[in-house]
From TrEMBL:
Pfam (any one): DUF3261
Protein name listed in UniProt: DUF3261 domain-containing protein
Naturally occurring in which organism (per UniProt): Enterovibrio gelatinilyticus
Length: 193
């Protein structure tokens, strides 16, 4: 049971905020009472399938979660596994709809999969694909060489994302470090070769 609580904690770290409204289709809460429309899967610019290991640090503790990420022109699919290899979460985004399937008994404790998807797409999708979606709400995602910074409508830094190399369209870096400044946690994503 302790392992399930650790896995739930890792997945919860992906969320910026709790949901305060019910977004529809491909809209996701980016802050309380603020939704953003996700870019299309095709705007990633490539098709890929990678295995990744997510390491989360918060409250002085470190936890890991293996995931499989698949991106195609029509969909984004993320599958999270327990440490013993059981699928605990599947997120699917296609045709402007987001679907979430969780292991029986965990759906009441897992956060909205839309938040997980939002953070993945903020980390990997080209800046150009985000501009028409963030501009209407006054948010910005700025990229400089090997990092990105997410600002809210008040100009406050919400998250910093660092890559082990300059981010190229359609490519997933070997190492990504995501720091959520408002909730004080760090996530490192290692793409396995």
């Amino acid at each position: 049971m302790k392992k399930i609580h650790i896995l739930v904690g890792i997945i919860m770290l992906f969320g910026f905020t709790g949901c305060t409204s019910v977004p529809r289709g491909n809209q996701v809460n980016i802050a309380p009472n603020t939704t953003v429309t996700l870019p299309s899967p095709a705007s990633f610019g490539a098709t890929t399938s990678v295995s990744q290991l997510i390491t989360a640090n918060w409250n002085g503790e470190t936890h890991t979660l293996p995931v499989q990420l698949q991106i195609s022109e029509n969909s984004v699919v993320l599958v999270g596994f327990s440490s013993w290899g059981t699928r605990i979460l599947t997120l699917s985004y296609s045709e402007n709809e987001i679907e979430e399937d969780t292991l029986a008994g965990l759906n009441a404790v897992l956060p909205d999969g839309r938040q997980v998807l939002l953070n993945i797409m903020l980390t990997l999708w080209p800046i150009e694909s985000w501009i028409p979606h963030l501009s209407p709400i006054g948010w910005q995602l700025i990229e400089r060489d090997d990092n990105r910074v997410l600002f809210n409508a008040n100009g406050e830094t919400i998250a910093e994302i660092k890559y082990d190399e300059p981010l190229l369209a359609g490519k997933i870096p070997d190492t990504i470090r995501f720091e959520q400044l408002r909730q004080d946690y760090q996530i490192t994503i290692n793409t396995l070769k």
